[in-house]
Each structure stands twice: as structure tokens, then as C-alpha cells.
Amino acid sequence: MGKKDKKSKKESDDFNVLEELPSLNVDEEEKARLAAKAEKKKLKKKEMTAEEKEEQRKINRENRQKKKLQKELNKKRKRGELQEEEEEKESNEEESKDEERPAAAKKPKVEKKKKEIEYGIWVGNLSYATTVDTIKDFFKDCGEITRIKCPKGNGVKNNNKGFAYIFFSTKEAAEKGVTMSEQKLEGRSLLIKDSENFERADGSKPPTEAEKKEIKKQKNPPCPTLFLGNLSFDTTEQSIRELFEWAGDIRKVRVATFEDSGKCKGFAYVDYYLVESATKAIRAPDKHNLNGRKIRVEFASEEAHMRSKPWLMREKKQQQKAKTNL
């Protein structure tokens, strides 16, 4: 292909839109219609009286105000601020509707049942194998039993945690139950006292009414050992001792640690000399903070408390061996 052929092909490939398209005709009719509409609007404005103009301005202002309010409401709704206002509005509307309804249409108020008075006793030193039915049968001669609260122990064979609460319908029945203290049930001498009696054999003072309420929330009965949970991995024996020594003399601090790193596993035990000290520590939730964390503070289980006294654990094992040999 020659140079001339290439040049002619290049010229034929060039395409100009402006040259190819015809000049666009402006729609004169549409232009005229819009102009007439604008003129009509101007004339209408001129024809309006001063009062009519003022009225129109007022309407325009109200419309603008409504739009502004709606905008603010939408913003509040997005931020979640409007929920309380709407609930209050709905409740006011319901109240106004109730007032409008006739008195006969209103539903009668249902009276709440009064809580029945119960008289309870605390039973300790139970065998872990003892069942609720066995406890019920043991106290059946005392009087009518309304309910038994017996927390289940850890493990399949443990039917309880070594203690239980028995509630009677009368005060006399509960008093009769207390007199059965030191009697044996499944080979163990029971320790029985009133459920509201927190006095201990070591002569320590019983807790106050406020302390009693806090104690009732606990899963385990009061004891000198505290369980601490939700601890940081950086927790040390010294930091725990510094946090809790204000409540009383600490006999021992046991921190569960990893074998490889030696760091805290997240829980520990504090052994006080007196149960009063442990109760005092529990009654101060504002001091249950360590290393920037809110920690769990509870009375430890009987088993955990026993582990702090190895000699008692040895005695217990020897007694169990003696029983099995028999």
C-alpha cells in the first residue's frame, strides 16, 4: 500500500460529530410556554392585596418551621434520643384513653399474693452422698416442711456441698429441728442451727443485718477462705495480700499458676484467720478491683477451705480409709 492510499484512509477515518449532526432546533413553543407561566405568576403576585401577601408569608414561615422540626426529630431518632420521649408520649396517650373509658371497662387490679412466712434451719456437716429425700425423711417428725434448699456439689457422686437449708411452716417445727443437732445422719454428726444465726464456735462476732443480706447471696456458707476470680495473669501473691490485708490478718494466699510460665491462671484463694475478716472483705465491693479489673470475691467451698489445712485433709483421708476397711 502506497503513501497516498494511507493518507486517503486516514482522512476517511476522521469523524467530526459537529459536522455530521445537523444544527439542533430549539423548541420555541416550550420556551414560550415557560415565559407565559412566569408572567402569569408575576401578575398574580401584583394582583394580591397586602393582607393576602402577609397571609402567604405566614404560611411559608409555618411550612419552613415544620420542615426544620421534622429534621431535628429525625436527627434525634438516629441518635436514639427520641426513644424515651416517644415512650413517655405513648404512656400519656394511654392514660388519657383510660380516663376516657367508662369505669366498668377498666380491668380490676389483681392483688399480689403475700409471701408466706417461713422458719428455716441450717444443717451442716452433711455427707456429700446424702440426698434431699434422705434429709426430708430425717426431719419429717419435726413438722411440715415447706421447702429444702440443698446446693448440688461438684461431681456426679456429690449430691450436696456439705450443708442445706430446711424451711418449716411453723416456728415450733424449726425449733424442734434445731434440737436435733449432734444427731447422726449416714454416719456424720450434724451441726444444726437457726438459718438467721451466724454465730460461730470460735467466738467471733456475728455479721450485721447488712452483712447477712450479702451472705445470703453467696453460694457457699461463711468461712475464713475467700475465692477470687477474674484475676489478671500478672496478679501476684503480694498484690493480693496488699489488697485484702486491711480486712484482717491473712494466714495464707494461694495463687493458681501455670507450670511453664509461673503466671496466674486467673483465680486464687485468700485464707484469713477469722471468718469475720472474710465477711468484712466481701462487704466492701468498692475494693474489689485489682490491676484495672473488677474481680469476683466469694466464700470458698468447704473443700477449698480444707485444702488450706493439709493436716485436716490427711485426717479426713484416714477416716475414709478406716470406714472402707470396716
If strands are numbered along the chain, what order do they take across the biggest sheet?
2-3-1-6
Write down the Rg: 42 Å
Mean pLDDT: 77
Could you give the distance between the termini? 121 Å
Beta strand count: 12
Largest sheet: 4 strands, antiparallel
Q: Percent of residues in helical segments?
A: 40-55%
Question: Proportion of β residues?
Answer: 15-25%
What tags apply to this protein structure?
alpha+beta, four-stranded antiparallel beta sheet, 326 residues, 12 helices
In short:
The chain is of the alpha+beta class.
Explain what this protein looks like in three dimensions:
Strand 4 and strand 5 form a beta hairpin. Residues 200-204 have low confidence and may be disordered. The chain has helices at 3-13, 17-20, 28-47, 50-79, 82-100, 132-138, 171-178, 209-216, 237-244, 275-282, 302-307, 310-325, and strands spanning 119-124, 145-149, 163-168, 184-185, 188-189, 191-194, 225-229, 250-257, 264-272, 289-290, 293-294, 296-299. The protein is an alpha+beta fold and 326 residues long. Strands 2-3-1-6 form a four-stranded antiparallel beta sheet, with helices on one face. The chain has a four-stranded antiparallel beta sheet with strand order 8-9-7-12, with helices on one face. It is elongated and about 120 Å long.
